[in-house]
Amino acid sequence: MTIQKFAAHCALYRRPSLFRAGRQIATTVLPFAAVAAAMYLSLDVSYWLTLLLSIPLAGLALRFFVIQHDCGHGSFFASKRANNITGRIISILTITPYAYWQRLHALHHASSSNLDRRGFGDITTLTTTEYAALPRLSRLAYRLYRHPAFLLAVGGPIHFLVLQRLPLTLRKPAWEMWSSVMLHNAAMVLFYGALFLLLGWVHFAVTVVPVLVAAAAMGVWLFYVQHQFENTRWDETENWDRQTAAFYGSSYYALPRVLRWFTGNIGLHHIHHLCSHIPNYRLQECLDAMPELKSVNRLTMWESLKSAPLALWDPESRKLVKFGAV
Predict the structure, then answer these.
(1) Residues 164, 123: Cα–Cα separation, whole Å
(2) How far apart are the C-alpha atoms of 326 and 207, rounded to whole Å?
(3) Is the pTM of this model over 0.85?
(4) DSSP alpha helices (H): ranges in 200-316?
(5) 285 near 304, Cβ under 8 Å?
(6) 234: exposed, middle or buried (Cβ count in 10 Å: 0-12, 13-18, 19+)
(7) What is the pLDDT of residue 170?
(8) SS3 for 91?
């Protein structure tokens, strides 16, 4: 089947539903409030229970992020105003500045799998040739950066908590980018400052911080496996085609139903990149209506774990390979 037929099928699922969007918000807000309250009350029972509850709460924060992501694409609601208002409100919980991330993510979609346009919202990936040409210290730094433990435990929190506080990724950020980030920073100070005063620094540190760190790690892992897998695709500009790169450079992360719910089906990333205006709540519907989509770049959870050590793009084999291959 041609890429054009896949694209034509996916385009049928672009229309948002106000009812389904509202239901998704309700089924995220209410559980989030309930688990947050249970987490706070559990401090009087056992801190191990508190930490256990931080995992589903972080998962719900990730679900909020997927809604913000859809708002940034203008796909969650039919109304642009509703998307922007909802996305900006949620951005305080996701600690991700809305307009700045929206612009950066649009560049990611416009340059995904293009070797000449790396650096927009992706995990830094070197080719085997580029890595071999690096000095020894730079190789060591890249190995450290690409280690899954570093990406999840250090890279994720640093990205969300530190790097997003200034719009430095875009070389020439417009005033609206700076204002978006600075206003977001101010809103975060007010919101989390109020929580800090309300809970006290000890309770804040043992409840809010673990959730933020866990949610950041989950988000980075999800984004990692969406583009970092053995049979992904990278091309130089002269051989790069946006539709082909979007579809074949993104994975179909086949998750259990409960994890699909927490992640808003964003694991169906090959469909999302091919048609980014499909609301997350229609992605599964799109997949089920065309079984051929289920055989493209399919990754199970176990296969995704095996993909974790892959760190270099080999232009000869056209696969992502381990360091030992160099």
Answers:
(1) 15
(2) 44
(3) yes
(4) 201-227, 242-248, 257-262, 269-274, 280-289, 301-307
(5) no
(6) buried
(7) 66
(8) helix
Contact 304, 320 (CB under 8 A): no
Q: Please report which helix (H) or strand (E) contains residue 253, including its range.
A: strand 252-253
User: How do residues 276-309 score in pLDDT, each as one tens digit?
Assistant: 999 999 999 999 999 999 999 999 999 999 888 9
Phi/psi of residue 252, nearest 5 degrees: -110, 100
User: Are the C-beta atoms of 286 and 10 separated by less than 8 Å?
Assistant: yes
Q: How far apart, in whole angstroms, are the C-alpha atoms of residue 96 and residue 163?
A: 10
**Chain center to CA of 157:** 13
How many contiguous H segments (helices) and E segments (strands) does the chain have?
16, 5
pLDDT one-digit tens code per residue, 56-115: 999 999 999 999 999 999 999 999 999 999 999 999 999 999 998 998 899 899 988 999
Distance CA(117)–CA(127), nearest Å, equals 13
CB 262 within 8 A of CB 60: yes
How many CA atoms are closer than 13 Å to the CA of 185, on its beta-carbon side?
A: 14
55/60 Cα distance (integer angstroms): 9
d(CA 32, CA 65): 13
The amino acid present at 156, given as its one-letter code, is G
Can you read off the two tokens belonging to residue 246? 């979007």
**Token pair of 270, please?**
């090959």
| Signed CA dihedral, 13, 18, 19, 21: sign only | positive
| Residues paired with residue 298 on neighbouring β-strands, in sequence order | 252
- Scan for tokens 């992502």, then name that residue: 320
User: How far, in whole angstroms, is CA 161 from its chain's centroid?
Assistant: 15
Q: Which amino acid is at 2?
A: T
Per-residue confidence (pLDDT) for residue 173, from 0 to 100: 64
